[in-house]
Each structure stands twice: as structure tokens, then as C-alpha cells.
Amino acid sequence: MPQVIGHRGTPEDENTLRGLRDAASAGASGVEFDVWWTQDGIPVLSHDPTVDRTTTGHGSIAAMTASQVRALRTKRGEPVPTLKEALRFTAARRLTAMVELKPTPTPPQVDSLLSVIRTTGAAPYVIVHSFNADAVDAVRRAAPELQTALTHEKTPITGKEAARYGTALNVSRFLATPGTVRNWHSAGLKVYVWTANWPPAWEKAKATGVDAVLTDRVEPYKEWARTACDLTATATP
User: Fold this and answer.
1) Which of 79, 141, 82, 145 is nearest to 116 (CA)?
2) Where are the transmembrane segments (predicted)?
3) Rounded to 5 degrees, what angle do the CA atoms 97, 99, 100 make?
């Protein structure tokens, strides 16, 4: 049965500590979240380059200081966490932390990323990933010991191509078939698919042999997985 990763934590409280806690409490083995850097070089959690959609504030994260971002609240009253806060949480619980880099980091930003990963003790549990191949390359050059992954959609990709970017592949669920997953596994990659939110997608992911599913619905996935395991056990002679 594929493991389950909470996509952005939870959709109700995306990229907040509350969202990460709720995903973990629902039984996720890991969480995925997004990172941008503030004007003063602090990595913070946000899917968007601006705070407009997710908070009651306005403006670009890159044009704001960390203190300014931290003073904001989401529409459900949650603060915007720093990456350090998020990784302290995941490391303490030994949760997989899929850290998605939105921009291509500058060398100082790479340094700040690696400093946070190392000082929080999260390195064994972190997978740094991005749609941006240059971002993944920047981290691999600076810290080849870290787990990294390309995040990929739309066009097919071979295991050989994906393995250039690390130890895993985070791929659109629509590209995962038994054949493609075998190819990715044969290249030594763990395979994560996103974003699968309903039983037909979960069943397909299980049938293809992926390692983990990113979902907005951790608790329903866990219930489906328990039921699927029970049915499999009942059917076994």
C-alpha cells in the first residue's frame, strides 16, 4: 500500500503548522510544503509568490521581511511559518518532509536552506524537490548527500532522465503506469504521485506500484487503505 503524504499539509490550513499537525494526526507518514525566501533571506512556507490569496495581507514575499510575513495571519488565523519551524516539527516526529522550492535559489538562499535543514536535524527525512530543474541542481551541487527529486508533469520522463536529479521522482499521477513505475524503480528512484484525492486515483496508484501518494485527503485515504488491506487479507487463501 502506498504511503500517504499530506499535500501542503491540509487544504484548509495549507502551508501552516496547523495544517502539518492535522495531516500528521490523521496518519500521514509525511507532509509536502512550498518555500519562498523573504527579502532578508529567510525561507518561509507559501505556495504563492505573494501573500494575497492565503493571508489577509498583500504583497510579494520577496519584497517583505520575515518579521512582516510572520505578522500576517491566514484567513483561519494561522501565522505563516518559517521553514525552520516546519522542519523542527517534522524532524521531531520523523516525518518525511517534501520541501518544494518555488524559485531557483541564489547561493545565499541555498546556504540558508541547508543551514535550516541541518540545524533542525531534519536532513534524514527531507526530500528537496521542484518543478524547476535548476533549483534541484543547485541543491545537489551544494549538498549531494541530501535526498532530492524532480517534480514533473505533462510529458513522459525516463528513469535515466529523472535520476539525474536525485533519489526520487515526484510525478503527476496521470503519468504513472505499471510500466513507467517499473522503469523509474529500475533507475533506483522512489516514486511519489500527486495529487490523488479519491478512491479511483488511489486504487490506480496502488496498482502501478508507486511508493507514496500526495493527497489533500489524508484521513479518507487512511480509511480507504485500511479497507483495501482488509479486503486483500480476506481474499488471500
Assistant:
1) 82
2) none
3) 145
Kindly give the interhelix angle for 218-235 and 199-208, rounded to the nearest 10 degrees.
60
Coil vs helix vs strand at 9: coil
**DSSP structural state of residue 105:** P
Task: Report pLDDT digits (tens) over 84-110.
Answer: 999 999 999 999 999 999 999 999 999
Of the candidate CATH numbers 3.20.20.70, 3.40.50.150, 3.20.20.190, 3.40.190.10, the domain formed by 3-234 belongs to 3.20.20.190
Q: Which grid coordinates are listed for 1?
A: 500500500
Q: Please report which confidence band the pLDDT of residue 229 belongs to, taking 50, 70 and 90 as the band edges.
A: confident
Q: For strand 30-37 and strand 43-45, is the pairing parallel, antiparallel, or unpaired? A: antiparallel
- Per-residue pLDDT of 16-38, as tens digits, reads 999 999 999 999 999 999 999 99
